[in-house]
Design goal:
heterodimer; A: about 140 residues; alpha/beta; 5-stranded parallel sheet; about 40% helix; globular; B: about 500 residues; alpha+beta; two-stranded antiparallel ribbon; 10 helices; rod-shaped
């Protein structure tokens, strides 16, 4: 994983955020990780003050996205990112409790790169994050233009 | 039907009966009156006949008398011939008269007086005529001159007049009676006619009123019918909305419950990992101290005890979470199933059930069970739903065997014009009567809890059968096996189903 890639974790549940971070670190991923607790904040961060996404050009990001957020639906965020020409190359990993097939299909249709269900079973959870670490290592995260 | 309405519908019939009765009465009265009138007019004719007969008799007498005198005066034998002709008529005329008045004692009385007078008078005439024939003119004139002979004639005429007067009196009485009868007949007919006209009018009014009521009732029925469609539409819309609401609710609740569960499980596992670290730390500490000198075996015991308690607590938490996760998953699955759009197709039920039985071959072997599939009528419905229904029922039958008894499961079906009925019967442990309702409830189970399961299968089956517009029935006794009867419409088509959430 390119050292410069910053992981943007959008997760309103603090416990989940903590568990995800712990497991990411355990998987040997040491990238910067920024946590957001709602959709508005992460969109502001990504799209920048001009709202065009040009501010994100200089950095490489990877978004870890929960679908159930207090202010907006994760799919809306996904759609917005993938609709922006500067941000559409940012890999988005949806990490959520929903295992509804329709929802999964919708996320892939919107352009999500990986969809991971948070299992209640912790070992499976840890496994899923570990695989995510593997995923980080095999994909080359492009710098946003 | 209200009693008021019934009285309305009865009234025309009553009127008809009354009208008919009046007609019959008029008929009878008219008949009687006509008959009487006929009798009366017969009597009138009779009276006239008597009068005429009296006239004939008197005429015959007069003619006999005048012809005899003509002969006495002129000696013309033509008068004699006429006299004889007239004289011979008199007695038959008298007899005829008697025959006519034989029913009237008064007249008979008079006739009885008259007859000897006539006979004597005839006798006189005959004597005078025969004397003249033998030229004994004086003797003949003697007889004519005799005053008593004329008196006889006067008496006869007087009696005849009396008789005539009597007959005229009778005639008037009879005529009056006839007139009265005709008047009565007219009045009866007129009154009856008026009554019938009145009844007819009343009947028309009543019929019109009841027709009007019928019409308004029909109108309101029509309106209700039209309304009913709208009401049914609205109700089913409400029902669909409510169903969707429940599905959404179940989905959201189960989904949102899962989120904290991830945390609980995650941090419990973290705790478990920490516990190992802590106990390792403690052991190390103890070892350090042990190396320092004093060995304390009680401490080690306490530590082991603490450790096992810790493990117990963690194990309970984890198993509870796992269970809760299973329950939530089940609710989620059910709610998802409830939102799935059904796609009806023609299903070869026998093939479907046979396919299902082949997938449970392993379980069949385990319980030494046998499944017999009868002739199952085909069905037009959602394949997946039907598969789930039968797979759940067959699973249950294989799962809850009577201990020590090889399972015998039969699946049968019948066809009615609109429905198909399938039965899944087993010889398993059965379900107590008091639990017949309970087993269809979510998470509820019955009997000995020695088999894994969440109590979802039958609830699922029930929900599916209901969604397919069918009914599910259970017949079972504890220890006596169970029969599940599924009744479905042969041609099921989804009305409006829940829209996607």
């Amino acid at each position: 994983v390119t050292e410069s890639v910053t992981i943007l974790m959008v997760e309103d549940d603090e416990g989940h955020a903590r568990l995800i971070e712990k497991n990411i670190r355990r998987a040997g991923v040491s990238n910067d990780l920024k946590a957001f607790v709602n959709g508005t904040e992460v969109l502001e961060f990504l799209f920048g003050p001009d709202g065009q996404g040009t501010a994100a050009k200089r950095n490489s990001y990877l978004v870890l996205l929960d679908l159930n957020l207090p202010d907006m639906s994760g799919t809306d965020i996904l759609a917005k990112i993938k609709a922006n020409e500067h941000l559409k190359c940012v890999p988005v990993v949806v990490l959520t409790t929903t295992d509804d097939e329709k929802e999964i299909q919708r996320c892939y249709d919107l352009g999500c790169n990986v969809y991971i269900t948070k299992p209640v079973n912790y070992e499976n959870f840890a496994d899923a994050i570990r695989q995510l670490g593997l995923f980080f290592s095999v994909i080359k995260v492009p710098a946003t233009e | 039907v209200s009693p008021q309405r019934r009285s309305f519908s009865l009234s025309p019939l009553m009127l008809l009966i009354i009208g008919f009765a009046i007609l019959v009465a008029i008929g009878i009265a008219s008949g009687m009156l006509v008959n009487q009138a006929r009798t009366t007019s017969l009597w009138v004719t009779h009276t006239l006949a008597v009068e005429r007969q009296i006239g004939e008799l008197l005429l015959a007498l007069r003619r006999a008398e005048s012809n005899e005198r003509g002969y006495l005066i002129t000696e013309d034998p033509a008068y004699l011939t006429d006299y004889r002709a007239s004289a011979t008529k008199i007695i038959p005329e008298l007899n005829s008269l008697q025959a006519l008045v034989v029913d009237n004692p008064k007249q008979m009385d008079r006739l009885a007086q008259m007859r000897p007078l006539i006979e004597r008078r005839l006798d006189d005439l005959r004597k005078a005529a025969s004397l003249r024939q033998t030229n004994r003119v004086d003797e003949a004139n003697q007889i004519v001159r005799r005053t008593e002979s004329r008196e006889y004639m006067d008496a006869i005429v007087r009696l005849a007049h009396e008789m005539t007067a009597d007959e005229v009196g009778l005639y008037q009485a009879r005529d009056q009676h006839a007139h009265k009868l005709y008047t009565l007949l007219f009045i009866t007919t007129a009154v009856g006619g008026v009554l019938i006209v009145l009844l007819g009018g009343l009947a028309i009014v009543l019929v019109r009123r009841s027709t009007r009521e019928l019409k308004s009732a029909q109108d309101s029925l029509l309106a209700t019918n039209e309304n009913l469609e709208a009401i049914v539409e609205a109700r089913s819309r409400d029902l669909i909305d409510a169903n969707e609401e429940i599905q959404r609710f179940a989905y959201i609740v189960s989904h949102d419950l899962r989120s904290p569960l991830v945390n609980i499980m995650g941090f419990t596992s973290e705790l478990e990992a920490l516990r190992n670290d802590i106990f390792q730390e403690m052991a190390e500490l103890r070892r350090d101290r042990g190396e320092a000198g004093t060995e304390k075996p009680e401490e080690e015991d306490t530590e082991v005890e603490l450790g096992s308690e810790f493990d117990e607590a963690i194990a309970f938490i984890k198993s509870s979470i796992t269970k809760m996760d299973r329950l939530i998953s089940a609710v989620l699955r059910l709610s998802r199933e409830g939102r799935r759009e059904f796609a009806p197709e023609l299903i070869d039920m026998k093939a479907l059930v046979q396919d299902l039985t082949s997938t449970v071959a392993h379980q069949m072997q385990e319980g030494d069970s046998e499944i017999t599939v009868g002739d199952l009528p085909p069905l037009y419905s959602d394949r997946l739903a039907i598969e789930q229904v039968f797979s759940n029922l067959i699973d249950n039958a294989l799962k809850y065997l009577k201990p020590g008894v090889p399972g015998e499961i039969t699946i049968n079906g019948q066809e009615t014009p609109l429905h198909v009925v399938y039965q899944v019967s087993d010889n398993g442990r059965g379900i107590e009567e008091k639990d017949h309702k309970r087993v269809f409830e979510l998470f509820r189970r019955s009997g000995q809890q020695d088999r894994p399961g969440e109590g979802i299968g039958l609830a699922h089956v029930q929900a599916l059968v209901r969604r397919l517009g069918g009914q599910l029935q259970l017949e079972s006794t504890l220890g006596g096996g169970s029969t599940f009867t599924i009744r479905l419409t042969k041609l099921w088509s989804p009305r409006r189903q829940g829209s996607e959430v």
